[in-house]
């Protein structure tokens, strides 16, 4: 188990063994036992929050552009800074953005990946810009070839 970050609320984010590889992102806190946040889990929060905050997509696109195949302290610090604009909800956004950042890294680490982090950004784009439902955005890539998905990503500039 590789701890990525301990948050000010005591919550902890880490990588551990998942169904596919050792790069499954897990979160735990005193309030919640260890669990892997799924796309549907955080897409629900993103969609709800986007009604109050118009900068979420741009902030996540900034994180996307900084993402490589490893956790970088500078990006984690940038997420803290980005999250401050959300005021009383800053810690929730710091956790959310860090979970998504780490999920993008996991996609970059997948063996034989052709899409990497772009697949996460595609779901976020569809959810926040194309008015897909949470389920549609989370399930869009299922049973589609990487070429079809790459064309979608290219269409949106990532």
Describe it for me?
It is a single chain. With 158 residues, the chain is mainly alpha-helical. Helix content is 52%, strand content 9%. The protein is built from seven helices and three strands. It has a three-stranded antiparallel sheet, covered by helices on one side. Strand 2 and strand 3 form a beta hairpin. The mean pLDDT is 94.
Number of helices: 7
Main sheet makeup: 3 strands, antiparallel
Kindly report the spatial arrangement of strands forming the biggest sheet.
1-2-3
Uncertain residue ranges: none
Q: Decide which structural class fits the backbone.
A: mainly alpha
Distance between the termini: 31 Å
| Beta-strand segment tally | 3
Using only C-alpha atoms, the radius of gyration works out to 15 Å
Overall pLDDT metric? 94
- What is the strand content? 5-15%
What is the general shape? globular
Helix-strand topology string: EEEHHHHHHH
Q: What level of helicity do the residues show?
A: 40-55%
Short descriptors:
158 residues; mainly alpha; 3-stranded antiparallel beta sheet; single chain
């Amino acid at each position: 188990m590789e701890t990525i970050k301990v948050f000010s609320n005591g919550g902890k984010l880490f990588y551990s063994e998942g169904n596919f590889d050792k790069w499954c992102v897990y979160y735990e806190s005193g309030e919640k036992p260890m669990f892997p946040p799924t796309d549907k889990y955080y897409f629900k929060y993103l969609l709800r929050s986007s009604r109050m905050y118009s900068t979420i997509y741009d902030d996540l696109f900034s994180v996307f552009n900084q993402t490589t195949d490893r956790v970088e302290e500078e990006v984690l610090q940038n997420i803290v800074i980005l999250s401050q604009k959300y005021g009383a909800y800053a810690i929730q956004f710091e956790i959310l953005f860090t979970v998504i950042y780490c999920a993008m890294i996991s996609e970059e680490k997948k063996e034989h990946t052709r899409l990497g982090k772009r697949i996460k950004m595609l779901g976020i784009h569809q959810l926040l810009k194309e008015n897909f439902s949470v389920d549609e955005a989370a399930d869009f890539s299922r049973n589609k070839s990487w070429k079809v998905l790459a064309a979608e990503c290219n269409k949106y500039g990532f």
